[in-house]
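tl;dr need the bound structure. longer version: we got a ligand (zinc ion) that a collaborator sent over and nobodys looked at where it sits. i said id run it. heres the input, straight from their email, havent touched it
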Amino acid sequence: MKKIIFYLFFIIILVITMPIIFTDVFKTEETSSNEGIDEMFDYGEFSNIKLLHTETGEIEELNLDEYLYGVVASEMPASFEMEALKAQAVSARTYTIYQIKNGSKHDNCDLCDSSLHCQAWISKENRFARWEENLREEYWNKIVKSVNDTKGKLVLYNGEPINALFHSNSGGKTELALNVWGGDFPYFQVVETSGEDAYTSYNSEVQISKDELVSKMIEKYANFEIDFGKEDCIKIIEYTDSERVKKIKIGNIELSGVEVRNLFNLKSTKFSFEISKDTIKFAVIGYGHGVGLSQCGSDALAKQGKNYEEILKYYYKDVEISE
Ligand SMILES: [Zn+2]
């Protein structure tokens, strides 16, 4: 009888304490990824980033992972899947270290906060101001978790951090760096992703008047001439393997797709055009240069069940994910 009472007592104690033990375990797990820079990972010479704020000209020194919160927050919608955010965090970390290792584009700092030059960056305060109030905490926690859960992770090719370029939406197929900047990297190849057409950045249009086209062309090419009466006054001459415009002839001038994109503010070089009475309409697919990791593609892959390492290896070929 005494034995039974003892066992009963033991079981009661166990039942009472179990939930306390478990919630405690979950609590510490939650806070460890939500608190911010909890445990510092030692990035050696890359521990501190000198960030140039392009608007003020001010240079701020930040811990690498703390800097990455602002990059991920600025570069990818926080509503995206967790694994896509982690892939973005690792790409951004790798890109940052590659830039510093291979000579910064700046003299007095490591990177600037411009997406057109280095990598976009936003402060927590400014980010919060643009999010709906009821989503702020949840979104920021996701950003912080994407960085903290991938602490120390880098994308390596032959043991070296890669030039981990990324863009918004590939429009179905990624592009070779060779067709955008001329340089060649073995880890960038043409990669197909399905599901990118579900994002708003997939389709866009730019309409300009014929006069506007002429003035923009003359600004750059003084000898520019065009006869809109001719059917082939604008003609695509060559496409890249990812179906982007490689060469196009406008009037008497031959331009690259990249030049046309910059000249007329197109979201990508994957475009077609339509000439009507007074205007030229460009129909554009995808957003960004198209090289490396596609952010919308990453989210689509995450929705299909791929984890961040699989996503990174999908867009960067023959790479290792390492510390
Ligand atoms: Zn820069």
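gonna send this back to them w/ a short note. Confidence is low (pLDDT under 50) at residues 17-37.
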